[in-house]
Each structure stands twice: as structure tokens, then as C-alpha cells.
Model the fold of this input.
Amino acid sequence: MVKKMELPKINKRFEVLNKAENDEADLYMYGTIGKGWFADISANDVRHKLSNITAKTINVHINSVGGDVFESIAIHNILKNHKATINVYIDGYAASGASVIAMAGDKVIMPRNTMMMIHKAWTLAAGNAKELRKIANDLEKIDTAVLESYTSRFVGDRSELERLLDEETLLTAEECKILGLCDEISDEIELPDEEDEQEETSVKEEILNKYIAASLDGKAVAQTTENNHKPKEEKPMNNASIIYQFLSSLTRSENN
Done:
């Protein structure tokens, strides 16, 4: 059974700050996306906040582990259809549904120490075989809807995007820029310490290497990678192997 990625705890913050000149406003979206007692930010909440903003530019600050997929898509569309220029800032983490929301920005800015996580939809379910098959079919339809939120930005093929979603991929700011999921990398901001990222599968590396930006205008170009042809480094023996060899040598000595 594949272990799901553990998501950090994020303190709630959902507010609008208007700049003095009234040409810009800041909308902070920190917390879980969804409706009900367990969530912090809903589509209706965002719609209400935006209805009171008359600024020409709205800076949306995101720090969220995601949440309800339908609420996330609704917030994405509310921001996308707003008449103001939407600048999205990833202040810490934009995971799952929060990354869908981020794709609504006219510009997406990520400090170097921030991250994004994209994946396919998942749920908890119980029922008989027929009911579970229907749930699986519904999830595949939801995956298609989620995928459309990224396609206008992603520089690669649709099949490559599907593979990244299927792998539940964690992306750095630099990786997001290479793949077209963010436009600009800014200076770092202070964040709580997090555990080191575990080694990813070769899917992300393969796709990233293909689309590393090599021109000044930021267009991604294909390049041949030799990563898959490098000889594998010999792995050091673990403690169990060392003890086994030691005991084996003692046995051979006694027999001699």
C-alpha cells in the first residue's frame, strides 16, 4: 500500500488588506479549502471577500494543504473571471486543491523556499463492488477536470502532466518555473522548518530535464538527458550485511 504524503499543519488566515492608494488589495488564503466546520476557506467566502474589493490589482497569498476539489475549482474560476489583475503569491505551500487555485493567477510568484504539490483526486469510500466501481469512475472524471486547471500553463504534453499528477509530485519553486506552473521566483521568505523531501521517482526528473529553460525569453526547449545512462553507484553495505558476513567468516574459520 502506497503511503500518502504527510501535509504540514497551517494556521488559518483569511482576510483582505487594502493598500492605502486603493489600487491594490491583498487577499490571504491560509488554511484548508472546503465547507463546514473542518475547513477554513470556501468559494462563498472568497466570493464575498472579492465583492468588497474595488482595486485594480489583487495579490492573492496562498499557504494551504488544499482540501475539497470542487470548492478549489470554484475558487479558481472566481479568481479567473475577476476583472482585476490577479497576482498569486505562494507564501509557503500550495498543495492539492490550493495548487489548482494558484493556476488562476495572471502571474504566479514563488519564493525560492516554497513548494507546490499536485496529485490526482482521492477519497475515502465504503460500499459493494458496484458502488466502488462508480466511485472510481467518478474520480477519473474529477481528475480530468483538475487536469484542465493546469493545462494552460504546463509547458509539456498532456500525458506528462498526467504522469506527474499520478505520482503525487512535490515541486520546488524552480521546478514549477521550468514546467510553467509559476512565472517568477522571488527572494526567500521565512518558513517553519520542514522535513527534507524524500527521494522522488524518476518521473519528475525525466520531465523536468526535458523542459529546462535554456533561452533568455523563458521558452522551454527539449534536451537530451544522460541521467538514465549513468552507472549506478554501489550502495554501501547496511549493518545487517556486515554482521552476516562477520558471522559467516567465523563459521568458515571453525570449519577449517
